TrEMBL record:
Biased amino acid composition, Basic residues: 955-982
Name of this chain's protein: RNA polymerase II complex component
Gene: ctr9
Source organism: Cavenderia fasciculata
TPR repeat residues: 239-272, 273-306, 344-377, 378-411, 529-562, 563-596
GO cellular-component term (any): Cdc73/Paf1 complex
Keyword Cell inner membrane: no
Biased composition range(s): Acidic residues: 1034-1047
Chain positions covered by the region annotation Disordered: 1-35, 866-1047
BP GO annotations: regulation of DNA-templated transcription; RNA processing; transcription elongation by RNA polymerase II
GO molecular function, a single term: RNA polymerase II complex binding
Composition bias, Basic and acidic residues: 866-912, 919-933, 998-1033
Protein keywords: Repeat, TPR repeat
Length: 1047
């Protein structure tokens, strides 16, 4: 195969045209608009022109491509032309030869082209799998595609084209999440390629289009729309993009926008079946049956086997009452697809036909099949429930209609039926459930706005979205009836949007309420005061602090005693880091109400955030002494202050812990469900070294409040104290995943790194410390801990009995890095460093000594490796010498054996000829009657001599065996003597190298087996020699071949 790429200058001139002019540029030769493909002639500026309109035989193409060692992109270009012209076998043949291992080795520098070829083949098999109905064959095609994508990844695992191909394959297999990941990787790889200014084609458009498809399938419709609209700017005439937008708009309920999108698709691609079907569905749903039917017929003419088209036609004939055609078309749709949703639709249509003709059993079977194929198909569930209801099977009917409500919570028919069914089913005693259903049946009369508004008010505290929906419907009905919307309703809707996070809608509604009052926002009239305050809270949630501050101050100016505004102004100042201003606002609030527990709590929390423990203590004590002695928030805050005081005053630790414990216990005695008080008791137990009690408390708390990360962290601390490092690590890691506060994350990283360190899991410790350093590079304690982790890991590796050279080399680099870190820390001039400078210097000295040991160990291992390499090389040379000697001996033995066999064959032929001649003589003698009597006499004499000959022959055989045995023993003794001398000679080498000793034992065993085999062959040859030795008498001949009569 390789030689075929070297020389081939002869090819059929009838299929190609050569030119003596300069070869066209790569851009022109690869242009899809050019009718010709140009193959450059090696070593010249000439080229061969291949007409893409009249492609020659693939054999001729292969001959010239090989002969001229054509670039792989030309191979691929010609292969694609074959594919376009439906010469599939030629397409596969050409790519198969180009991707042959020998060719790949020859074109090893053409990585991108080889990847493109592998992707082309993989895409071909993906298409085959998509249209294949047989599941086994489909899976085989997908496996073929996967195999080629894998080969492409081995060449370059970051090639965007491969990611796109794999994503398309995964989408075909229904693996949407993995497909999304591959599309994202394609976009990332394309972006990196673009940034590196390479010439690689950047498939950003297909990757983005594919990712938009994934977003649609995952239900993220708005994101899909946003992505598709960006693509539309890049390519306004892409039918695929506009088709996707149409589907998205339809899913979002923007029917007219979807309609326009599908119409635009048909302007670009008149025969787009998907657009025809989608547009037909819209027209049919809008009541334009004729137009919808025309579009379906047009789609059917283009794709008579399209299952969606067939289902649409079946549905059309169902409404016309032509059930025979319904069955035929729906069955055809089912047999032409593997997609369960389409099959479910077909089964549902068949079930409807049976249902309409009162064939209940057949209807039940087909409805059931539809629900099995698509459990979310609520229309099939509804039909199935109706059949069960007809059969008086109420329990199963309830299950079906409840399944409908899971997908369609506002389904009026299902609610109405369930309201009656519950009363006669096993749910009759479930009053709350019936109440919920009956509340929903207030929608029985959808034109009564009071029902919607009442439902909206009922759902305000439990279901914000449903409440808003109900308000919208009620308001629309009010507008339809010409009734003015009250400001109370609008304000409620604004609050709901605020809670939902729809800040823009909330703002519009708040402003609308203020406008409806007849006053401006700046008037701050009492009629609008609540709405204005809510608007300010909205701006605060949107981080628009200036606008919020302006409204709060405006309210205070007109209504000086509005306490909440002062508190909110203090909270804004605190969030902006202005503690002084925050405190001033709290003081203003206290001037209005000196006994406000909320104000004192916020004021105390401000001091706590600034670690002003004494000031905070006074604020919380004020609450307990003046306002409410049982206030739980103030009590817990004071308990926490006393608990933390033990760190500042270790000599009073026991006293402060006792005070904190009394606070926590007092709170629990009044509020036994207060998890923060229980958490405090766990902390006190741990501080008193009662670790089992602390563990029990935190475990119980965690079961009831798993989302409170503080409890998990405290439990991890206890596990650390009990040396249960693995348990602590799991809890720290879980808390880290739930944490979104940078300061808290930094602290947990510190806890986790310590846990890994104490567990002697130094590699993970280093990784966590590096992540913590990423968050806080100025924290010098983290760098110090990283150096200690490196030191400990290095010492652990050096203590291992079996160390590899790469391990020690890595340790050497790590130790150098750790010394560098500690030297920098020692030289720091920070006034209050957060690490122990003396210990830092001690560890620096230790690392210096360790570096020397590592260097010595590294040199020792390098010397040993050099020596072992020499031994391995020597052993390899010796092994090759022995193998060559063995091969020569075997060859000589084979030649000798062959010569003996030929000699034996020649002798046998001579004996056979001699015997035939004797046989002929005997036959002539028997014809002579006189000779017959003489023959009898002679035979009698021969028989008597035969008895003597038999005895003599046995003695000869016995002597031969004895002689043969003696020869065999001499050969064995001679061989054993040589073996012993050889072992003595090689004994020293065996002591120096255990591996060579093992190899020598194996070799000796092999030699022994060869010698035994040689003995057997020599014995056999001697037997053959004795057997084939010519006899001096006629009796010997008879003994060899048998008598003539017997033959």
């Amino acid at each position: 195969m390789t030689s075929s790429y070297n020389n081939s200058s002869s090819y059929s001139s009838s299929s190609y045209s050569s030119s003596t002019t300069t070869a066209p540029s790569s851009s022109s030769s690869s242009s899809s608009s050019s009718p010709n493909i140009y193959i450059p002639i090696r070593g010249s500026e000439r080229y061969v022109s291949v007409s893409s309109d009249n492609l020659p035989s693939v054999k001729d193409v292969i001959e010239i491509l090989r002969g001229e060692v054509a670039p792989l992109d030309i191979w691929l270009q010609i292969a694609i032309e074959y594919y376009k012209q439906n010469h599939i076998d030629d397409f596969k043949t050409l790519l198969g030869i180009a991707l042959d291992p020998a060719a790949e080795e020859f074109y090893k520098d053409s990585k991108f082209e080889r990847i493109a070829m592998l992707n082309a083949m993989a895409s071909y098999y993906t298409q085959l799998g998509n249209v294949e109905k047989d599941k086994g064959k489909k899976e085989d095609y997908y496996q073929e595609a996967t195999y080629r994508f894998t080969k492409a990844d081995r060449i370059d695992p970051r090639q965007p084209l491969t990611f796109i191909g794999k994503a398309a394959l995964l989408l075909a297999k229904g693996e949407v999440d993995r497909a999304a990941l591959n599309f994202q990787q394609a976009l990332s790889a394309s972006s990196n390629t673009h940034n590196s200014n390479t010439s690689t084609t950047l498939p950003l458009f297909p990757a983005k289009l594919g990712y938009s498809c994934v977003l649609f399938n995952k239900g993220e419709i708005n994101k899909a729309v946003e992505s598709l609209q960006k693509l539309l700017i890049q390519n306004p005439v892409s039918a695929s993009v506009r088709l996707g937008l149409g589907y998205c708009f339809y899913k979002l309920g923007k029917i007219e926008a979807a309609k326009k999108a599908f119409q635009r698709v048909l302007e670009i691609d008149l025969d787009n079946v998907d657009a025809l079907v989608a547009l037909a569905t819209i027209h049919t749903n809008q009541g334009d049956i004729d137009t919808g039917m025309k579009l379906i017929v047009q789609a059917y003419e283009l794709a008579p086997n399209n299952p969606i088209v067939l289902n649409q036609l079946a549905n059309h004939f169902f409404y016309k009452g032509d059930y025979t055609k319904v069955h035929a078309l729906a069955q055809a749709a089912m047999s032409n697809t593997d997609i369960n949703q389409i099959k479910a639709e077909a089964s549902y249509i068949i079930a409807k036909a049976y249902h309409a003709t009162d064939k209940w059993n057949e209807a039940l079977q087909n409805y059931h099949q539809a629900t099995l194929k698509s459990p979310d198909f609520y229309l099939a569930q509804f039909g199935l429930g109706q059949v069960y209801l007809h059969n008086n099977d109420y329990e199963k009917a309830v299950g079906c209609f409840e399944a409908v409500l899971e997908k369609q919570p506002e389904n009026y028919e299902a609610l109405q039926i369930l309201g009656s069914l519950y009363k006669v089913s096993s749910q009759s005693k479930n009053i709350e459930k019936i109440k919920n259903v009956l509340m929903k049946t207030t929608l029985l009369n959808p034109n009564d706005s009071s029902n919607w508004l009442e439902l909206a008010q009922l759902l305000e505290s439990s279901d914000v979205s449903s409440s808003l929906d109900a308000y919208e419907k009620g308001i629309n009905l009010l507008k339809k009836d010409g009734i003015e919307i009250s400001t109370e309703i609008l304000n409620n809707m604004a609050v709901l949007n605020h809670r939902k996070g729809s800040f823009s809608n909330a703002e519009k509604l708040y402003l609308k309420v203020i406008e409806a009052s007849g006053h401006k926002l700046e008037d701050f009239k009492a009629v609008n005061i609540t709405t204005t305050y809510n608007l300010a809270r909205l701006y605060e949630s949107m981080n628009k602090f200036d606008q919020a501050r302006q409204l709060y101050k405006g309210i205070i100016k007109e209504h000086p005693n509005y306490m909440d505004c002062y508190l909110r102004l203090g909270a804004i100042a605190k969030s902006e880091g202005n503690s002084y201003e925050s405190g001033e606002w709290y003081k203003e609030a206290l001037n209005i109400d000196p006994n406000s527990p909320e104000t004192w709590s916020l004021y105390g929390a401000l001091h706590l955030s600034n670690e002003q423990w004494n000031h905070a203590q006074k604020k919380f004590e004020q609450i307990l002494e003046v306002v409410n002695k049982n206030d739980p928030y103030a009590s817990i805050a004071l308990a926490n202050i006393y608990f933390n005081a033990k760190y500042q005053y270790p000599e009073k630790s026991e006293k402060y812990l006792s005070i904190a414990e009394s606070f926590y216990s007092r709170i629990l005695s009044r509020h036994n469900d207060n998890i923060y008080a229980a958490n405090g008791l766990g902390m006190v137990a741990a501080a008193k070294n009662n670790l089992l009690l602390a563990t029990e408390i935190f475990i119980q708390l965690r079961e009831s409040a798993i989302d409170v990360s503080t409890i998990s962290v405290n439990l991890a601390h206890v596990y650390m104290s009990r040396n249960l490092f693995d348990n602590a690590i799991k809890l720290y890691e879980g808390s880290l995943k739930k944490c979104n506060n940078t300061k808290d994350m930094e602290a947990i990283y510190g806890y986790l790194s310590k846990a890994y360190f104490l567990a002697r899991r130094y590699q993970e410790c280093k990784q966590i410390l590096k992540k913590a350093i990423h968050f806080s590079p100025s924290n010098l304690a983290l760098w110090y801990n990283l150096a200690l982790a490196i030191e400990s890991q290095s010492m652990a590796i050096l203590e291992k009995p079996n160390k590899s050279l790469p391990e020690v080399a890595s340790v050497n680099r790590e130790v150098v890095y750790a010394r560098h870190l500690l030297m920098n820390l020692v030289s720091q001039k920070t006034q209050k460093p957060n690490y122990d400078v003396k210990r830092c210097k001690t560890h620096l000295l230790s690392l210096t000594e360790l570096a020397k040991k590592v260097g010595e160990e590294l040199k020792s291992l390098e010397d040993l490796e050099t020596e072992n390499a020499k031994k391995r090389e020597s052993a390899a040379v010796e092994a090759k010498k022995r193998a060559d000697e063995r091969e020569r001996e075997e060859k000589e033995q084979e030649e000798a054996k062959k010569a003996k066999e030929e000699e034996h064959q020649r002798m046998a032929e001579e004996y056979r000829a001699s015997w035939n001649a004797a046989r002929a003589d005997k036959e002539r003698e028997e014809k002579d009657e006189d000779y017959g009597s003489a023959k009898k006499k002679k035979r009698g004499a021969e028989e008597s001599s035969d008895e003597e000959y038999t005895v003599d022959k046995k003695e000869k055989k016995k002597a031969k065996k004895e002689k043969k045995k003696e020869k065999k023993e001499k050969r064995r003794e001679k061989r054993d003597k040589k073996k012993k001398e050889k072992q003595q000679k090689e004994g020293k080498e065996g002591e120096e190298d255990d591996e060579e000793g093992e190899e020598k034992k194996s070799r000796d065993s092999s030699d022994q087996e060869e010698n035994d085999q040689k003995d057997q062959e020599m014995d056999k040859q001697e037997e053959q020699k004795d057997t084939s030795k010519p006899s001096d008498t006629k009796d010997d001949d008879d003994d060899l071949f048998g008598s003539g009569d017997e033959l």
